[in-house]
Amino acid sequence: MNLLPTPTDPMDAALGSLAVTAPSTLKAAVLVEVGLLDRYARIDSPIGPLTVAWNGLGVSLVDHEPDDAAFETRHAAATGRPSLPAERLPERMADAIERRLGGDRRARIKLDLRGHSAFEQDVWRKALEIPRGEVRPYGWVAAEIGRPKAVRAVGTALAHNPVPLIVPCHRVVRTDGTIGQYSLGGPENKRTILAAEGLDPAQMEAAAARGERLVGCASTHIVCWPTCRTGRHMLARNRRPFRTLAEAAASGYRPCKVCRPVDGSLAAA
Questions:
Q1: Is residue 169 annotated as part of the catalytic site, yes or no?
Q2: What is the pLDDT of residue 230?
Q3: How many C-beta neighbours within 10 Å does residue 79 have?
């Protein structure tokens, strides 16, 4: 008895009619979803258009290279993966990035940081904690992650940040209070971004030139980093500049529990 369907078997013909050709985009979509291929698109920023690459694991690269071919070369060198252009970012990702750049640290943005060391990722996660419109020195990051002597290594990690702006390395400055370098177009771009967040970079650097690394409030006897939000409404007559925590402590000031200045934060950069 022949149990195999014949070419004219009605069931076989019915099943054959259900077959469809996979969309030409399916392969790329699957590769993107599993993180073997990235897509990229442009977004606006305070320093002009930026290119953002992503895959199913998260955002993988942010760069200011406007040329597609040049960006794809840069992306391949940084990630080891190919990339394809897209018309725009996924809506939820674009919304989260806009909210994050606007200061909403609750906005969830997945990041694909494969290939980077645990130390680098610790540094970048700590930078994510710095609020919009505030800055911290390299030494603060080093102290906060439990590596107070690794100030230079922190600077190197921030220079290698693959997703600047999203991970706000522009909010980390040199130990002496000067602006320092910036991987996304240099110190002028860093100043522009900080100004867009409500800071006055020229004023910050003038204070740094005078050696004013910390500021205390005479009415509360609390000492902070100069941009700490707790001191924004401090009356001018209550401001007391200090060069070191030891100097502040000798005058009866205690460290702010919000911005957490510590001795290791003032280590040489």
A1: yes
A2: 85
A3: 19
